[in-house]
Specification:
The chain has 6 helices and 4 strands. It is α+β, with helices and mostly antiparallel strands. The N and C termini lie far apart (43 Å).
C-alpha cells in the first residue's frame, strides 16, 4: 500500500469528488440533454449542502445563526480549495468574495466556458441558499456577482434576519 500524507489524501478525495460530479453531469447530458442534466444537478445540490452543513455542525457543535454559518461555510470552502476572502459587517452579516472556484476552473479546463454562466447561476445559488437555510432559517443569502457571469469574483452575502445573531 502507498503511504500518503493528509494533504495527498485530501487532494485525492477532492479530485474524485469533483470528477464524479462532472462525469455524471456529462453522462446525464449525453442521454437526456443539457437542461435535464442541469435540473438533476440542482436537485442534487439541494441535498448535498445539507449533508455538508450538518456534518460540520456536528463536528464543531455550532448549530444556529450567522456565526455558526460563518465558521462552517469558511471551513467547507477551505477544504474544497476555494480562494476567498470574507468581510464581516458587524454581527448581522458577512460577505464571501470567491476569486478562485474549483468548479469554475474545472469548466474552463474542460472547454465548457459556454455553459459556465447557466451552471453557476443555477447550482451556486441553490447551494448557498441551502447553506443559509441550514442555520435555523433566519439567515438570508444574496449573490449579486458571479465569476461564471463574467464577474471579477463571486460575491455571496449572508444576513441574519430578526433575532438570533450570533446564537449558538
Amino acid at each position: 500500500m502507498i503511504k500518503l500524507n493528509d494533504r495527498d489524501i485530501a487532494q485525492y478525495f477532492r479530485r474524485s469528488y469533483t470528477a464524479t460530479d462532472g462525469l455524471w453531469f456529462m453522462k446525464v447530458e449525453e442521454r437526456r440533454g443539457f437542461d435535464e442534466a442541469l435540473e438533476t444537478d440542482c436537485e442534487v445540490w439541494k441535498v448535498l449542502p445539507r449533508i455538508q452543513a450538518r456534518t460540520l455542525k456536528a463536528l464543531t457543535r455550532l448549530e444556529h445563526g450567522l456565526d455558526a454559518l460563518f465558521e462552517c461555510l469558511t471551513t467547507k470552502l477551505t477544504l474544497e480549495g476555494y480562494l476567498f476572502t470574507v468581510v464581516r459587517e458587524g454581527e448581522c452579516s458577512f460577505k464571501v468574495n470567491i476569486s478562485g472556484c474549483p468548479w469554475f476552473d474545472a469548466l474552463h479546463r474542460s472547454g465548457r466556458d459556454s455553459i459556465a454562466a447557466k451552471v453557476g447561476s443555477s447550482i451556486c445559488r441553490t447551494e448557498y441558499e441551502v447553506w443559509a437555510q441550514e442555520f435555523d432559517g433566519s439567515v438570508s443569502m444574496e449573490m449579486p456577482q458571479c465569476l461564471c457571469n463574467g464577474g471579477e469574483y463571486c460575491q455571496i452575502e449572508f444576513r441574519q434576519n430578526g433575532n438570533g445573531a450570533g446564537k449558538e
